[in-house]
Structures are given as C-alpha cells and as structure tokens.
Specification:
Blueprint (H helix, E strand, L loop, with lengths): L2 H29 L3 H30 L5 H27 L17 E2 L5 E2 L1
Antiparallel strand pairs: 1-2
C-alpha cells in the first residue's frame, strides 16, 4: 500500500466510525428515559460522530487533492464550540421548566456498599 492509500483508509475509517457513533447516539436518544439523559446522548456522542466524519472528509481532501477546505475547518470549530453549549442550555431549560427525572431506580453497582460511622464506604 502506498502512503496515499493509507491516508485514504484512515479517512474512510474515521467517517465509518463517525457513522457508527451516530447510530449509537440515535439509539440512545430513542431509548433513554428522560430529557436529561437524552440530551447527553444527543450532544456528546453525536458531536463526536460529526467531528469524526468531518475530520475524515478533511483528511481525505487534504491527502488526495491537496485542498484545505476552510468551510470544513470552520464547521469543525463551530460544531465543537456550539454543540456542548446547546446541550447545556437544553438541560438548563428543562430544569427551569421543572421537567421530571426518571423515578424508577437504575441498577447500581454500588447498592451493596454500606457506610460506616466515620463516613468511609466498605463492601
């Protein structure tokens, strides 16, 4: 394999990984129980998915056509800056609107830990 083919393979793997993470994010948005956890799935993982896909496209164009796209760079930067802020604002608006959190307990790996009288946890 030549160096150009290796770079193209890396770019294709980044785009593929971004697509897989986007599917996982969509599954989380559909199945998670309340607005707070859905917002987490919608902002954190989908931000990573889009950043991987855009970075893969940027690397592909840079390696094959020796073209640096300012639009892709600006898209990566603005998405990196705005998506977490938007997720925070959605959660803050839900909190101010007194949106209920899920009430049924989630299975915890810490449920068998008891506390001693000095505040330290022991199994």
């Amino acid at each position: 394999m030549t160096e150009n083919q290796i770079v193209e393979l890396i770019a294709a793997l980044m785009v593929l990984l971004g697509g897989i993470i986007a599917l996982i994010s969509a599954y989380g948005i559909l199945t998670l129980p309340d607005v707070y956890t859905r917002s987490h799935a919608g902002t954190k993982s989908s931000t990573l998915a889009v950043l991987l896909a855009l970075t893969g496209v940027f690397i592909y164009f840079w390696s094959t056509e020796h073209y640096i796209s300012i639009r892709l760079v600006l898209g990566i930067v603005f998405l990196y800056l705005t998506a977490p802020v938007a997720g925070h604002l959605i959660c803050r608006a839900a909190y101010n609107a007194e949106a209920k959190m899920v009430e049924e307990p989630v299975e915890s790996s810490l449920k068998n830990i008891t506390e001693t009288d000095n505040g330290k946890s022991i199994p």
